[in-house]
Every structure is written in C-alpha cells, then in structure tokens.
Amino acid sequence: MQDRYLDPHQARSRQPTAYEDLLGDAIERAYAAGIHDLPGLVAQLNRSGPSCPGGVAWTEENYQAEIARLAADC
Question: Where is each Recombinase-like domain found (predicted)?
C-alpha cells in the first residue's frame, strides 16, 4: 500500500520536458560524484551537458537564472 501522505510529485503541475529530465540527471550525477558547490556543478555541466539554453556555456549566473526560471514554471 502506498503511503497516502507521500507524493513526491505533489507540487508538479506537468510532466518534465526532455531537457528538464536531462538537466536533472546531470545534476544528480554531479552530486553523486561529490560535487556540491556551484562552481564545480557549472564546470561539470559544461563538461557533460546538457547545454545551457541558447547553446552558450554554463556560468554561475545563467545556471541560477535557469533554475529560477524552471522553478517558477513548475
């Protein structure tokens, strides 16, 4: 029986896009590799992808802006 109080997607209003899935997977892989700081995360995303929207390199600033945009779009 599923715990009626646990719904891991309770705040989600739609299914994630392919890009969002790829980005989430890349962030999870970085954390699993022991990367827990923003500069390290940005460097890892630039090495392994996915690319930043617009095809530019990830920076701390555009990463933070993209995560804020995605959070507002949920």
Answer: 1-72
